[in-house]
Amino acid sequence: MTDLQKRSLLKIAALTAVASAALVGCGKKEEPAPAPAPAPVASAPAPAPKPEPLKIAFAYVGPVGDGGWTFAHDNGRKALEKEFGDKIVTSFVENVPESADAERVIRDMATQGNKLIFGTTFGYMEPMLKVAPDFKDVKFEHATGYKQADNMRTYDSRTYEGAYLAGVIAGKMTKSNTLGVVGSIPIPEVIRNINAFTLGAQSSNPKVKTKVVWVNGWFDPPKETEAATSLMNGGADVLFQNTDSPAVLKAAEAKGKRAFGWDSDMTAYGPKAHLASAVINWGPYYIKSTREALEGKWTGNVGAWWGVKEGAIDIVSIAEDVPAETKAKVEEVKKGLAEGTFNIWAGPITDNTGKVQVAKDTVADDKFLGGLSFYVKGVEGKVPGAK
Fold first, then answer.
1. Contact 329, 204 (CB under 8 A)
2. Percentage of the chain surpassing pLDDT 70?
3. Which of 224, 191, 226, 186 has the alpha carbon at shortest distance from 210?
4. pTM score, two decimals?
């Protein structure tokens, strides 16, 4: 074989090798096995939607800054907000007259989606009773009244207990033995307070007598001042009130006499005149009622009447010059009221005409107190409108 032939054969072999390598390079490449798919992850359940807050509305007969009745109710509303936080939303309308306007305001509250409505004065009873049947899903609460319905109930505080405690102090502190009371409206609630104040005073000083001037309104500072001045001009040196402003205490301060705060601590309005304040704490009841509404346990056609025992009534800020033995007696009576061992309405109790109203060895029940329409012995005059 010639060299030329050898070179040709080598060239052919080389080309063949190159072609084979190219064919291998162009062949299908083996792919790796796919990775197993991850196991499905169970998704967390969607959070339950947050319940809408319970809307609660309050109708006030006076301004929230009255320093007395309405101020006490508004403190109760604030206690609700502190207790339940964002579970509730509260609102109020102040200065709602005890008239046709009350029905309009209460109806508007229900229309705006409030599901719990508090009417905080006696004169709202009939308006609430009229509105309640039109809003079956709304819970109505009426303060100091006695009429109820399937979705309306009543609540009250035993203010007469605070009045009695104030009387214990008044009987000891009077120098003239003449006490004066500025009365609002002659309904059983107010008459009870006048009588309890007098009975408390008589327990400290049997010689006392009580004079009353009515102003026929709950919040009317000019009339309250005028009535207080009239009582002081008539010889009263210690004043008590069943009205909503601090006007009576202010009038006593101006004349150098003594007086009590009512419904709220009124010390600041007449620090020299102030003997003590008989106060109402509405917070415990408002919290109880709201909790029942939130938990679906609220029921109508019932009434509540809370006093010292339930923490709704107290006497606070007793003046330093009240004798220690009198303060001790106040504490003793308060303890007895809390424990049920003392009763203000234990007989014999006679009215100021000499008629026995509560017999010896008996105790007046709540039904009797709810219709009380006479003055006890020691109160001068006649109850307006009484037969």
1. yes
2. 88
3. 191
4. 0.86
